[in-house]
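Exercise 4. Each item below gives a protein and its sequence. For each, produce the structure-token representation.

Item: DUF2785 domain-containing protein (Nocardioides humilatus).
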Amino acid sequence: MPPIVDWRHVSAADFRVPADRRLSDLTAELTELLGTPRSETRELALAVLCTWIERGVYDDLLPGLGDGIATGLVSGIGEQDTDSVYRRSFSALVVAEVIDRDTRKPRVARAKVHEWGDKLATWFLLERDERGYVPGKGWAHSIAHGADALGALARSPHCGPGELLVVLDVIGDRVTRPRQATVWYSGEADRLAMTTIHVLGRGLVPDELVEPWLERIALAARPPRERSDGDDVYLQTGNAAAFLRALYLQLALGPATPPRRSDLVLNLVQLLRRAHPAYLGPSHHRA
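Answer:
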């Protein structure tokens, strides 16, 4: 079935909503296009939806829009290296835009944002397809997009200390998995670190909870003392290590100033020394 409008023309016309089509029909088609393996079409659908959300086109419909888009988070969940990842990953970005719109112009009940947060967290922990850029099909980038969605939750005034701690726990669970499918190399660690900065910037999670959370990740980033010759130590520790380094750089050099920033930086320095003793500790032996 051909598209009901030429979305390239919509983009060229400064994303004006076509007056001769029902918004519900346009939205339904855009939602489906989030899952297409055609990169240009998928990115265009994302741009249209996010622009319309930002401009307030959906302001009176935000709860329903968020619910509808969130159904895409479970489309093909559990699959790996299939095209179903696009619908899940790009749905997360649109849900994030809905949450950010509510943060700027409140339209959604607290319970509804929490419901979306639960769905995002569940999807993010269950997602098995960690590919970044897929040749011929463009970005899948589920880990990076999930980080962005969790960041939107972290910025939402509907999320208090308990919800922010859940965001940290979800990040921790994802980066400390002992048997990673791949070591991320498409900016995922940086995006997760930025989400962490958003959480810490709220100043609502007590230090006594942040410190053991960081310790847990640092432990996962340190190569085990005993390992078999067949173990790829970098596959086991690479994501946790990259996350710690990214978080340190953003805290030390970035513009954000979360409470007790200096203490966090000093703590991360010590954790990085322990995670990388061959490079930052007294020993210089490298495997």
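Check: The mean pLDDT is 94.
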